[in-house]
């Protein structure tokens, strides 16, 4: 699935994808499904790549543009947001609003909000795994497992 070579030493991208799947993606998906039986679970993929994220290192081609926990820089960055592009500032405002809503209401979108593009964030269930992609726009998507989970994107779970 990952590489025509049995040990992946000749295909670094396959090794990166395998490591991502085994150590991050699969356990996140399964945890969200199991936890959703007991409490509300909201799942997201952070796919926005901008300067505020701080990921300025050279990326390995095909491994994706967003690193693990990169969204943290959009929440906790101590720099003046005005130093960054309008798009970065908008993502910063959105993710801070999402996390503030979740901390306050146990729901990232308790009501429609133009800043959050009027989406209502769906809860995860085993039979209907929906999530929000946080990119330049917010998108409600379904079943991240149907896509290659070796996409190199960062997934996270908010659990009430």
From TrEMBL:
<dbReference type="GO" id="GO:0052689">
    <property type="term" value="F:carboxylic ester hydrolase activity"/>
</dbReference>
<keyword id="KW-0378">Hydrolase</keyword>
<dbReference type="InterPro" id="IPR029058">
    <property type="entry name" value="AB_hydrolase_fold"/>
</dbReference>
<protein>
    <submittedName>
        <fullName>Esterase</fullName>
    </submittedName>
</protein>
<keyword id="KW-0325">Glycoprotein</keyword>
<feature type="domain" description="Carboxylesterase type B">
    <location>
        <begin position="16"/>
        <end position="147"/>
    </location>
</feature>
<keyword id="KW-0719">Serine esterase</keyword>
<dbReference type="InterPro" id="IPR002018">
    <property type="entry name" value="CarbesteraseB"/>
</dbReference>
<comment type="similarity">
    <text>Belongs to the type-B carboxylesterase/lipase family.</text>
</comment>
<dbReference type="Pfam" id="PF00135">
    <property type="entry name" value="COesterase"/>
</dbReference>
């Amino acid at each position: 699935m990952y590489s025509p070579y049995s040990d992946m030493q000749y295909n670094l991208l396959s090794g990166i994808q395998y490591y991502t799947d085994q150590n991050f993606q699969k356990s996140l998906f399964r945890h969200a499904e199991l936890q959703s039986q007991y409490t509300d679970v909201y799942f997201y993929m952070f796919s926005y790549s901008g300067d505020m994220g701080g990921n300025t290192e050279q990326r390995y081609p095909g491994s994706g543009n967003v690193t693990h926990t990169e969204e943290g820089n959009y929440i906790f960055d101590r720099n003046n947001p005005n130093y960054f592009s309008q798009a970065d500032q908008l993502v910063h405002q959105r993710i801070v609003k999402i996390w503030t809503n979740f901390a306050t209401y146990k729901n990232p979108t308790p009501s429609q909000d133009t800043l959050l593009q009027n989406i209502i964030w769906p809860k995860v269930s085993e039979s209907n795994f929906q999530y929000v992609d946080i990119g330049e726009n917010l998108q409600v998507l379904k079943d991240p497992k149907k896509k290659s989970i070796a996409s190199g994107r960062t997934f996270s779970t908010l659990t009430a």
